[in-house]
Amino acid sequence: MSDVRVRLAPSPTGYLHLGVTRTALYNWLTARSGGGSFILRIEDTDRERSTDEFLEAIITDLRWLGLDWDEGPEVEGPHGPYLQSQRGGTYAPFVERLVQEGAAYRCYCTPEELEERRSARSADEAEAWKYDRKCASLSRDEREALERAGRPHVIRFRVPGGKTSFVDAIQGPVEFENDQFDDLVIARRDGTPTYNMAVVIDDMEMRVTHVIRGSDHLTNTPRQIMMWRALGHEPPVFAHMPLLFGQDGKVLSKRRGAVSIGEYRRMGYLPEAIVNYIALLGWASESGEEILSLEQLADEFELSKLSRKPSTFDPDKLVWINAQWMKRLSVPERTERLLPVLRDEGLVAGELTSEEREWLERVVDLIDDRLKTVRDVLDFDWFFLASGVTYDSMAVSKVLDKPGAGEILAGLRKVLSDAPDFTTDALETAIRSYAEEKGVSAGKAIQPLRVAVTGKTASPGMFETLSLLGRHRVLARVDAALELSS
Ligand code: GLU
């Protein structure tokens, strides 16, 4: 185990979407590539906007993607996650210490008073107004008088003068003038810490070594660094990832209807493909290889190699990567991944017997690598599973109603009923020699048979399909088609 400790700190105020998943993945890879730890900390102190449903969804989706975390209280199985709402007692002593040491102070100004002082300025000044530090220098007597009057207070951090600079692991050197920052509120009237304070205390308590997050947090970082130092610690390494854009050129965000991981799952994407594609939104393998498993990514990943340039999410590329992963799965594995979709659609019920599974695997093998997503399996109509066949009227008029089609079909019926073996190869030989005998191309002979057996003009390979359906069903369907065409 190395000393690297990283964390994902999502707020359960929405589903897990692509941006947070990228943050999760890069943190996870940083931990896994160096034998460090990955912590999941749910920032659920915004009780109004946090819900259990979002929390459950985040946990389910991270697990489904294979982004497991290493530690946490035993709230759900052995590994957490940490919930900020359950760490209520942790923060007050730190805040109190800052007050004792003069790095923070009690502020009794009411929101109305603040607004009055702000709006007394010219429009431009009001816009840039920062807290005027009225309470920063209250005498003890003044403070006691306010306390006696029952005035509630917040706690503000006293932003020091000078500059705050740090070397971001992705962005390089960054510097901020401290005087652009307000003396920010670090504890509310009810004593609960605000975001910046809670994050600093949690990261400190959890011994986080690298804070890897979106660049939307970049202006929080100098404030957090000041708080780390005020608490007597050196801050961790910060790494701010460039923005992620949608194809409309706008930043992808959960507030703008970005698709959640749960939705991708329902659309039939594989977790392997999602993490693979997301990894490439800001990082590339030196080998140029684009199809990489989590293990391979963890082997090659380096935080310092992340791009500073923003990336654009390309849904077509995700489909392509998904199709590559579909092809890589073995037939039994692919069958396993398709089963939930087939069950949802009522095409498979209950547990499969070993014969049924074998049969389904043959079907999946027959569909071969034509599946781009798991749900594409539904495009194959499952005429194999259905007890009957529905004839497409266009297919009937274009093929079965053609002169000579009935005759070919009747001839093929005999070939099929006489075939000693109903295997793919034996059927192919028998049907081809029949076509030759009749002086027609194999394609021409097969087409009426295809419509007879599948109801459509397009299907997977005919010989395999026939073999899969078995003699009994094939003959019944040919008979039904002969009725139709006569
Ligand atoms: N809870 C914050 C968010 O969801 C993350 C904070 C952080 O990574 O420091 O944006």
Describe the overall structure.
The chain is elongated. The protein has helices at about 20-35, 50-65, 90-100, 110-120, 125, 140-150, 195-205, 220-230, 260-265, 270-280, 295-300, 315-330, 330-345, 355-365, 395-400, 405-420, 425-440, 440-455, 460-470, 470-485; strands at about 5-10, 35-40, 80-85, 105, 155, 165-170, 170-175, 185, 210-215, 235-240, 245, 310. Helix content is about 45%, strand content about 10%. With about 475 residues, it is mostly helical. The model has no long low-confidence stretch (mean pLDDT about 90). Helix 3 crosses helix 7 (about 195-205) and helix 18 (about 440-455) packs across helix 20 (about 470-485). It folds into 4 domains: about 5-80 and about 245-315, Rossmann fold (3-Layer(aba) Sandwich), CATH 3.40.50; about 90-195, Glutamyl-tRNA Synthetase, domain 3 (Alpha-Beta Complex); about 330-375, no CATH class; about 395-485, Arc Repressor Mutant, subunit A (Orthogonal Bundle). The strands form 5 sheets. It has a 3-stranded parallel beta sheet with strand order 1-2-3. A 3-stranded antiparallel beta sheet has the order 4-5-8. It is built from 20 helices and 12 strands. The N and C termini lie far apart (about 75 Å). The protein binds glutamic acid.
* Named CATH topology of the largest domain: Rossmann fold
What is the number of independent domains?
4
Please outline the major beta sheet.
3 strands, parallel
The assigned structural class equals mainly alpha
User: What is the architecture of the largest domain at the second tier of CATH?
Assistant: 3-Layer(aba) Sandwich
Percent range for β-strand residues: 5-15%
Small molecules bound: glutamic acid
CATH homologous superfamily of the largest domain? HUPs
CA radius of gyration is 33 Å
Tally of individual helices: 20
pLDDT average, as an integer?
92
Number of E-state strands = 12
Order of adjacent strands in the largest pleated sheet = 1-2-3
User: Distance between termini?
Assistant: 76 Å
Give the low-confidence spans: none
Name of the top-level CATH class of the largest domain: Alpha Beta
The global form is elongated
